[in-house]
Amino acid sequence: MTTGFAPAAQPSPTRSAIAAQVRDVVKTYGRGDTAVRALDGVNLEIAAERFTAVMGPSGSGKSTLMHALAGLDTINAGQVLLGDTDLSGLGERKRTLLRRDRIGFVFQSFNLVPTLTAAENIVLPLPLAGRPPDRAWIDDLVATLGLGDRLRHRPAELSGGQQQRVAVARALAARPQIVFADEPTGNLDSRAGEALLSFLRHAAHELGQTIVMVTHDPNAAAFADRVVFLADGRVVGDLAEPTAAAILSRMASIDAPATRKTR
Ligand SMILES: Nc1ncnc2c1ncn2[C@@H]1O[C@H](COP(=O)(O)OP(=O)(O)OP(=O)(O)O)[C@@H](O)[C@H]1O
Ligand SMILES: [Mg+2]
C-alpha cells in the first residue's frame, strides 16, 4: 500500500477520511395514508476536507438529508454520525451544542434575523461558538461574497441574492468543521455564483473545510469534488471529479422513465 514517498506530516488516510455519514437512514413525514418516506434507507459517507454536491429532483429528499446530517431533525431509523459522534443517540440539548460548535448551515430559505443588519447577522454565531472572531477571515468572506457595501442593511433591504450571500457568510463565519449549504447559489447571478463556488472549493482544498452543498445546477455541482445523486429518498448515483457534461448525462439517465421506480 505504501510507496515510501509519502511525507511524514501527511494525515493518515483513515484519519482524514470521513467527516459525516448516514447509515440506513429512514425519515418519514406524516402518518398513515399521507405519510411521505422522504429518506428511504440512505447510506452515504462525506469525505473530510472535500467539497461534496448533492443533486436530485425536487422532493427527492436533499433538504431532509442535509437536516438529518446536521442534526437539525430527528430520523425514524438508522444512524447519523458526525465524526465519531452518533447524533441519533444524542438528546436535543447535546445536538444543539454540537451544531453550535461544529456545524454551519445555509438554509434554502436563508433564515436571517430580520431585525439585525447584514453585519450583525454574519457575526451572530460567533459569541455562541465561544470563539473570538477571526477578523481577517470575516473580511475575506465579506469581500469574496461582495457584501462590503451592504453590511449596514437589514434583510428586508437586501435582494434575494444578497440575503443568500449573508446566509453563506454567517454559516462560514465561525469556521465550523462542516458546512451544509442548501442551494446556496439558487438566487445568485452567474458571476456571484461562481465567486461563491470558487470560494467553497478553495475553503475545502486549501483551508481544510468540509462542505456539502445541494444544488440543481450542473455547472455549480461541477465545482465539487464529488456529486451524489438522490431520487425518491435514495442514493442513485455517485460521480467523482465531475464535469458539467458528465453530471448532465448522469441526470438524464436517472430521469429516464425506464430506471424510475413506481411508487
Ligand atoms: N415538514 C414536512 N412535512 C411533510 N412532508 C415533508 C416535510 N418536509 C419535506 N417533506 C416531503 O419530503 C419529501 C422530500 O422533501 P425535501 O424537502 O427533502 O426535498 P428536496 O429534494 O430538498 O426538494 P427541493 O429540490 O424542492 O428543495 C417531499 O416529498 C416533501 O414534500
Ligand atoms: Mg430542498
TrEMBL record:
Domain of life (superkingdom): Bacteria
Keywords annotated in UniProt: ATP-binding, Nucleotide-binding, Transport
One annotated GO molecular function: transmembrane transporter activity
Domain spans labelled ABC transporter: 20-257
CDD domains cross-referenced by the UniProt entry: ABC_MJ0796_LolCDE_FtsE
Pfam families, A to Z: ABC_tran
PROSITE patterns registered for this protein in UniProt: ABC_TRANSPORTER_1, ABC_TRANSPORTER_2
GO cellular component terms, semicolon-separated: membrane protein complex; plasma membrane
Protein name: ABC transporter ATP-binding protein
